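Aim 2 progress update. The chain analyzed this quarter is reproduced below.
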Amino acid sequence: MIQEIFRLYAERSSFFGELILQHIRIAGISVAISLFLGLVIGVLISEFRKPAQIIMNIINVLYTIPSISMLGFLIPFTGIGNKTAIIALSIYGLLPIVRNTYTGINTIQPFLTEVASGMGSTRMQILFRVKLPLALPVILAGVRSMVVMTISLSGIASYIGAGGLGVAIYRGITTNNAAMTYAGSILIALVALISDRLIYLLEKKIPWSEGARDRRERQA
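Predicted structure tokens:
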């Protein structure tokens, strides 16, 4: 089986290369949308806490919907193809970002924001210069989780006519070609692992993140 998988990679390298690019594009767009919306929602519910529990409950409910069911629900509204897959993946990616942003900001010691307020900082200055830097390590942990999850879930996009490495898995299943199925699955896992590692290395390169982590450790 292993020899058959590597033979497929060698003989159909252009096919798999195109699928990898499609997979990265679909997952990348979904990650960008989830990150932007998740940060905005997370910041808003941390600043205005009354609707926080309601919004978190709604996102939690959406997160529990099976991915195939979510895709099926969206098809009548957005059709089949990449657009529907991106919408579904973006919805699934919201929870880790919203939850970690909300948690990261809310676990900051109150005296830090009180000191900044006492020095004349505005609400926006406190948010961007105190709260977000301190919450950054927690937020980045959510980003890593979301990226890996999105890349993995992108494999089901082929069931609604979208591209990506799920095409190889779907083709392998429908033609009873186990090697093709395994080949697509292995590449999805590799893309997810490489992405996770790259984010980890990027996190280590950000002095902002390191300083925030040290301050959080001193708070504890």
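The two ends are 51 Å apart (CA to CA). The mean pLDDT is 85. These observations will guide the mutagenesis experiments scheduled for the next reporting period.
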